[in-house]
Amino acid sequence: MATLGDKLHATYRVLEFLVNRKLRYNAHESWRVPSNPKFMSPEDAASLVKDGSVVATSGLAASMAATQLNLAIKNVFVKTGHPRGLTLVTAGGTGTKGKVPGTPDDLAQKGLVDRLFVGHFDTFEGFKKLVRAGELEAHILPQGVICMLIDRMAKEGVAQWEGPTGRGTFLDVARGGRGTVLCSNTRLPAAKQHVLATPEGNLRYWLPAIDTAIINAPKADRKGNIYFDGASQLCESLDICLAAKRSNGTVLVQVGCLVSENHGGLMLDSKYVDGIVLASNTEQSATFYHAKPYAPFLPTDKLPTNEAVIRAYDGLRFIMRLFNYRVRTTSDERMARLALQLLTRTLPKDALVNIGTGLPEMICVPALTSGLLSSWTFVVESGVWGGLPCLGAYFGCSLFPKRIISSGETFKKLYYSKRGLDCTVLGAYEVDEEGNVNVSSSDRGPGEYIGPGGFIDLAQCAKMVVFVTSFQHKQSITTANSKGTRLRITKKGTPKFVKRVSEITFNASMALKDGKIVYYVTPIGLFRLTPEGLQLEELMPGITTRDVEEGAEARILISKNLREVAPEVVTGVSAMPKPNGAQKRITSKL
After folding, report:
1. What three-state secondary structure class fits 448?
2. pLDDT tens for residues 208-234?
3. Residue 261: left if φ>0, alpha if ψ -120 to 50, beta else—which one?
4. What is the pLDDT of residues 86-128, one digit of tens each?
5. In this structure, are strands 533-539 and 557-564 parallel, antiparallel, or unpaired?
6. How big is the CA angle at 161 (ends 210 and 398), to the nearest 5 degrees?
7. SS3 letters across 71-135
8. Please, are residues 308 and 368 in contact by the beta-carbon 8 Å criterion?
9. Quick check: 586 and 519 in contact, CB under 8 A?
10. 318: which DSSP letter?
């Protein structure tokens, strides 16, 4: 557990972070290195961005934002009207819902950015406002597809990728999907699709060629070489720089500190760099800085004790609470234990597992205390392998990871390696009676769109897909006896298990054809996808089949072998089971 000293230090970090983001921006301050004109002020760097450029940024959640550069481009535009007419490409959700400045969302100014290509849209409050005003052309692509497109641009100069990803979803134009276009910009011609169906039944995606890269990196030397050791994530940083240079474009890098030459580690040669902004408040992740990096985010060959990992995790959780991040309930904890019990009896001992954002994050701590970090490998779409995946704004980072590679390389390994991804654990906004899942649309129009992030890619790659979701919106479930072994519904909500989802982000029939095993973990029990529909397999003690049938609009099948969930899952008292080393590896048709 985090100590009082940890919490006081975390509180100081949060206050320092807010001051840095809101007050420590100086557009004209000169961070120069004698004899190297590539070191420049933020506004000098911003002036290198040309009108009509295709700009790419990197990062995920609250990590790796080029804060000074983002603010400088906005301020230069407000003063001069330039650069204008930009296209922005960003794979991950790197906004902060308007809470903190310095993210790519600061570029959401009318006339500054005309087009946006993104995987996760929910955190970009500024761009949502442009959508509602008809001032933005927005395209939604799977995050992994964007990462692999950028990877191909960097390595091959090719901006196309083809595969089965997105079949039967909102992206599948051959099966009635709307494609990549979320909305058009009323000042521009109607938006054109960036996906098409191939005769083989796949989908082909493409992006405009990137000609400007804006990234955050830990270090630079005096010659202008850029070093990435000390980064909490790599994401697309190196790839977008190389892609921009293939187009004879511009690369701008914000770094946190100056180091000696031949520093070592992954490096971007100075010949690829046009402008460097040296700022001591350049962030490794929210509240942590490259000038003094947070060591638990960095790769290590030896995992520390469970107590050390939990203490670091609790410290991050405390910071998230200071930012008013949702506090998870005991019902959420029961769901996490049920999901983990399912995984431990189903997956092989050396499983490769992805944990998504939101409710799936709850699995991490019980997985740690069950000893699974020494056998399973957790992988995050940011390119972080091993360790304990982090929560909330720190999603994309892991505590004490084994290695950090690019997101493009990560997705290629998940898609193409023989090893493959054993399981992904994802959230859900809606589930229908066919087993389809919507996680991308709130059904409130383009201006309130969520986006799939890496959801579609991960569900495509995984042999087993587990959804962790509440059974109803705003439903309350409490214990019904003094021992806490039985449950009861104290407040009914609105159904999340509906007749038909408002948008298909996961196509259940396609998953069954691909041989995937699919489960849905809820506070009332465990469901499995069958060819006939959703089937209830396990029921929480105290919850009845009538509760299930009355609480869903979807038709629910009841298993002839319906089981009651084990008491230790409900109470959390007994130790969770260990992974099944004798379990045969899951196979699929992929």
Report:
1. helix
2. 999 999 999 999 999 999 999 999 999
3. beta
4. 999 999 878 777 777 889 999 999 999 999 999 999 999 999 9
5. parallel
6. 75
7. HHHHHHHHHHCCCCCEEEEECCCCCCCCCCCCCHHHHCCCCCEEEEEECCCCCCHHHHHHHHCCC
8. no
9. no
10. H
